[in-house]
Amino acid sequence: MIQIIELHKSFNGQKVLDGANLTIPTGRITVVIGKSGVGKSVLLKHIIGLLKPDQGQILVDGVDISTLRGRSLREYKKHFAVLFQGGALFDSLNVFENIAFPLREKTRLSEAEISRRVRLRLEQMHLTSEAEAKFPDELSGGMKKRVALARAMIQEPEIILFDEPVTGLDPPMTFTVFHLIRKTHQDSGYTALVVAHDIPEIFSIADQVAMLHKGRIVACGTPEEILHHPDPVVQSFIKGEVDFLEG
Amino acid sequence: MIKFFRMMGRRALNLVNEAGGMILFLLEGLALAFVPPFRPRRILQEIQFIGVKSTLIILLTAAFTGMVIGLQGYYTLRKYGSEGALGSMVALSLIREMGPVLTGIMVSARAGSAVTAEIGIMRITEQLDALDTMAVNPIQYVVMPKLLAGLIAVPLLTAIFDVTGILGGYLVGVVLLGVSPGIYFSGMTQSVVPLDVNGGFVKSVVFGLTIILVACYKGYYTEHGAEGVSKATNQTVVLSAVLVLAWDYILTSFFM
């Protein structure tokens, strides 16, 4: 379980997180929604240790990861994987090498075993063997996300964080990526945190939805509860009302 | 008036801050060379990129530099009836100064800017963050091989520059202007002493490290998207060139 407790973070005097509290249950998919620029990605980066909070705690199975350094932080990072917004594929490596990268860096598996696992993930992501030799700049947006998901999954992590996984994708590819997230979650049972603003599609995969607004979590519940939440801020966001977006 | 001094003070503080940051960055990068995995393949790849692929530009620059020194030197020395000293003049100019400095500037323009762009793009596309989240130290994976490659490749390129420049001077002085080849080379062997070669070598090591350090640092801390990468690349070339010239003066004063 991941617990975010009274998280505060400012950049150049501007408050981004102002006492955010959230519990992310083990083995479930939690989605964080909110308007663009509200701090969803900042929240996510705290969990993966890329940012340190000004105040507050981030407990992962009882361990405050905001205080971890050096080797203990590296050990912690072995338990999770991240799907970045643009995929963050390594430009100088082809698809096969990108997916194999975590195994080559972190394990002593033979090349034959690495090949077998990479090809299994490619198949899982509906990517053909012809895609293996391609470089990231030759891939479409949807393919990049699938390769990035394959690279995240090959590590068999306990926790996967998704930073706007379908931003910039067309509706059919959005459906495909969400379907793959749901399917891999069902197969592996990992804990997932998805940062997104694709309503209502994201509700189809969510077990829990939390809304971030003005640095705080203002609503948290099942998709059904969020859709019928009494808070006018939540309702305005879901309905995409202009007043809220300009606020 | 106060605003001016405040601005100057802020700039000076930023400069000191950046210098300190670079030194810490360098120390971390070099220290990680002694921590496994040692990444020999990546180091060789970087030597190929920084060293091998810079060879052609170094050969061209060296050839023309040697030829110009030969040409200018011949007509200057002829005024004093000392054409025989042409070989010494070409060799000493190249080995002590022109070789290390021009090699440094060429490597900065070619490889330094490319390194900054590569790492800067990795920064803005979150590839460095991706490495970090996979518990792979981005400085160890990306920066350390480049630092070691700079340390190895730039002195080798300087040696190539020196030899090529001497041959360029030979082409002009001996082949075109008629200086005796025996006098050209014997003058050289009499006047070039180990201190000259060592001094040139030390300069090339320092320049190589400086150029790649600046390139890596500027790329690693790039901000603000594509414009930031462009700005960082520009800053790398300018700052590297200035530092090469500054180091050149400091090191020359030690060796004189």
Topology:
The complex is a heterodimer of chains A (247) and B (256).
Chain A: E1 2-11, E2 14-24, E3 29-33, H1 40-47, E4 55-60, E5 63-64, H2 70-77, E6 80-83, H3 95-106, H4 111-124, H5 141-153, E7 159-163, H6 171-188, E8 191-195, E9 208-213, E10 216-221, H7 223-227, H8 232-239, H9 242-246
Parallel strand pairs in A: 3-8, 3-9, 6-7, 7-8
Antiparallel strand pairs in A: 1-2, 1-4, 4-5, 9-10
Chain B: H1 2-31, H2 40-50, H3 55-78, H4 86-124, H5 127-133, H6 138-176, H7 181-191, H8 194-220, H9 225-255
Helix pairs in contact in B: 1-6, 2-6, 3-4, 3-6, 4-6, 4-7, 4-8, 4-9, 6-8, 8-9
Description:
The complex is a heterodimer of chains A (247) and B (256). The mean pLDDT of chain A is 88. In chain A, α5 (141-153) runs parallel beside α6 (171-188). Chain A has helices at residues 40-47, 70-77, 95-106, 111-124, 141-153, 171-188, 223-227, 232-239, 242-246; strands spanning 2-11, 14-24, 29-33, 55-60, 63-64, 80-83, 159-163, 191-195, 208-213, 216-221. In chain A, the strands form 2 sheets. Chain A has a 6-stranded mixed β-sheet, sandwiched between helices. Chain A has a 4-stranded antiparallel β-sheet with strand order 2-1-4-5, covered by helices on one side. Chain A is α/β, with parallel strands linked by helices. The longest helix of chain A is centred in the last third of the chain and has 18 residues, at 171-188. Chain A contains 9 helices and 10 strands. Helices cover 86% and strands 0% of the residues of chain B. Chain B is mainly α and 256 residues long. The mean pLDDT of chain B is 95. In chain B, 45% of the residues are buried. The interface between A and B is medium-sized, with 23 and 13 residues.
